[in-house]
Design brief:
By secondary structure, this protein is α+β, with helices and mostly antiparallel strands. It contains 21 helices and seven strands. It is globular and about 85 Å long.
Length: 626
């Protein structure tokens, strides 16, 4: 993903440079900036942006030099350069609290002085930081703000970079089709600009999107192209991304010898750069490599190394502190707006007092005006007191919201890891099924079921949180709904098979194209089929039917389960409600699934209805607009 080469030298995007002679002159001859020009500070800053995490100490030295020179020359932009470099230096060291402090200072200063160029840079840095912290939703919001500024300024190279960054973010969000839409737009915008645009990041993200779509050969073409270019350029930092991607593709091809060569190369580069973030990513892929080879002990070791590094980089306390800092920044913005409003009101008050003074001089009408003014002042004072109380309450609510968001972040990051470790051990036990007796096999199945239930609980809680905070946005696209339903069925067939439940699927057409959000629709269908499996007795059947209804598409999920009592139907889609009907074999239920389905379909302009009878099954019917 493009990062620090945005905006400050937008023509030569992504061009890497070695340390310039100018830096050595400044460092070793002691020439004062006061004898030079502000252009030299800008050039020095541009070069420092290209150092990367391999030259952390150099970034700090340059930041101090620029700060000193900016004081000598009274160069306001130079102070922004220095603070930005200090933020990048702190970020590379893993000091994320300090980094966000510098970036927010740059953002506040740029907005205060109406410097759009530097505002975009600060937003880009914040976006990249949240990408590092595995918070792509937050990063996406900042990149969208950055793109708006670039479009307003009409800078093609910056627009291309922003589109590429958004493509990378949507890859992280698991939305490759949306990612490709942004990346194709970036490629179209970049045509005709030749060497002015760096295409390596574009190719890398194109490959990642195609990789997610399981189009391995196409992905390999982009990764291999970047590998060749970066090898010729000797760009070791970018080479790390290339070899890691190549390894991932060869794992999918089951060409494990080739995958291991690239894996080892990526680990060596990460250690050469002394980058814990890169090292953690390598161990994460290494766990996948060993798992695919059924080497579960080695996979677990790699997973533990990844978790150890990843947890040390970003812990819960760090995330909470960062959120609080950002909340304080936004509160400060609102406070400044309130001060401006008060100043405007006071200016108006002064004019009103002058008018009242003249009115008093001419008699009784003036007296009435003064009395009336005093009444207004009293009301205004009460209003101000109420506003102060509201601000205090808003501040407290912001703090509580930050604590809640921090807790959600801890749940998503920290609880998934132990569940993943338990699942790895279960797979290790399953690989030796021949050595287990019947009771031991049942115990393994129960452990596996508990892990799945725990992961489902985490996903449901996070889904509810996203709904309540509106932290997701619709990614609409045209697609055939039938392959999506087949994927949902395939994901739930193992659970159905374990209960000897048959799933019958029927469709009336070869294609049924709709305009919707594929990921959200998958989540809704998955919840409905999961419920059907839970509440259907062993040996029964589940029927799924898709029908073309002209302007609508209708999807029915009908089971031969236990049914729902009529008096409980009104609680069916209520969050955390649990009806008296119990799952047939003790499967866990949070009472969240159907409320999530209802909200998703509402967002998608769809509808859901339910027909049920006790001991005579249940039918959920979903209606979607084409």
């Amino acid at each position: 993903m493009n990062r620090h080469f945005l905006y400050f030298h937008s023509v030569q995007v992504g061009v890497k440079k070695i340390i310039a002679p100018l830096l050595f002159i400044i460092l070793f001859t002691g020439v004062s900036f006061a004898q030079k020009d502000t252009i030299e500070i800008t050039k020095l800053f541009d070069r420092a942006l290209d150092y990367g995490d391999a030259k952390i100490d150099s970034i700090k030295i340059v930041a101090d030099l620029i700060e000193k020179g900016s004081i000598e020359l009274d160069f306001q932009n130079g102070h922004l350069f220095a603070r930005r470099l200090k933020g990048i230096h702190a970020e590379y060291l893993g000091d994320y609290n300090n980094a966000i402090s510098h970036y927010l200072w740059c953002l506040e200063t740029a907005r205060k002085n109406k410097l759009e160029l530097y505002e975009a840079s600060a937003l880009s840095d914040l976006a990249y930081l949240y990408t590092e912290l595995k918070n792509p939703e937050k990063a996406k919001d900042y990149y969208i703000e950055t793109a708006k500024i670039s479009i307003k300024r009409g800078e093609v190279s910056s627009i291309v970079n922003d589109l590429v960054n958004l493509g990378a973010i949507f890859n992280q969000l698991g939305k490759p089709d949306s990612a490709l839409a942004y990346l194709n737009s970036a490629e179209a915008a970049a045509k005709g600009f030749g060497d002015q645009i760096d295409f390596t990041s574009l190719r890398n993200n194109m490959g990642n999107a195609l990789f997610q779509k399981k189009e391995w050969e196409k992905a390999l073409y982009y990764f291999r192209s970047n590998l060749k270019i970066n090898t010729e350029k000797g760009d070791t930092e970018m080479l790390w991304y290339d070899v890691l991607n190549m390894s991932d593709v060869f794992i999918e091809f089951k060409q494990f010898d080739s995958a291991k060569i690239f894996l080892d190369q990526s680990l060596n580069i990460a250690k050469e750069f002394k980058s814990l973030r890169k090292e953690a990513d390598v161990y994460q892929l290494m766990a996948k490599y060993h798992q695919r080879r059924n080497e579960y002990k080695e996979a677990l070791t790699a997973l533990q190394k990844w978790n150890s590094i990843d947890t040390s980089l970003v812990n819960a306390e760090t995330r909470a502190t960062m959120i609080q800092m950002e909340q304080r920044y936004h509160l400060k913005e609102r406070e400044n707006e309130n001060k401006l409003l008060v100043a405007q009101v006071e200016a108006g008050n002064l004019r009103t007092r002058n008018v009242a003074f003249v009115a008093v001089a001419i008699g009784f009408l003036g007296l009435i005006s003064v009395v009336y003014w005093n009444l207004i002042r009293k009301k205004n004072k009460k209003l101000e007191e109420k506003n102060e109380l509201i601000q205090e309450q808003n501040s407290r609510l912001a703090e509580l919201n930050a604590e809640k968001n921090s807790l959600i972040s801890v749940v998503s990051h920290d609880l998934n890891t132990p569940f993943s470790s338990i699942r790895m051990w279960v797979q290790l036990l399953e690989s030796d099924r021949d050595q287990l007796n019947e009771n031991q096999l049942k115990a393994v199945e129960r452990i596996k079921s508990s892990v799945d239930a725990g992961l489902n609980l985490i996903r449901n809680i996070l889904d509810v949180e996203r709904v309540q905070t509106n932290s997701y946005s619709l990614e609409l696209e045209k697609f055939d709904i039938q392959p999506l339903i087949e994927i949902v069925i395939g994901d739930h067939e193992p659970a159905a098979r374990s209960k000897q439940i048959q799933i019958h699927y029927e469709s009336t057409k070869s294609q049924l194209i709709i305009l919707s959000d594929k990921q959200m629709l998958y989540r809704a269908f998955s919840n409905l089929l999961s419920n059907a499996v839970k509440f259907t007795p062993r040996g029964k059947k589940i029927y799924i039917e898709v029908k073309d209804k002209g302007e609508n598409v209708e999807v029915r999920f009908r089971d031969e389960g236990l049914g729902i009592a009529p008096e409980e139907m009104k609680y069916l889609f209520v969050k955390y409600s649990k009806i008296s009907t119990k799952s047939t074999e003790g499967e866990a239920s949070t009472g969240l699934g159907l409320s999530i389905v209802k909200r998703i379909l509402s967002e998608l302009n769809g509808n859901i209805r339910c027909l049920s009878e006790l001991n005579n099954g249940t039918t959920f019917t979903v209606e979607l607009k084409k």
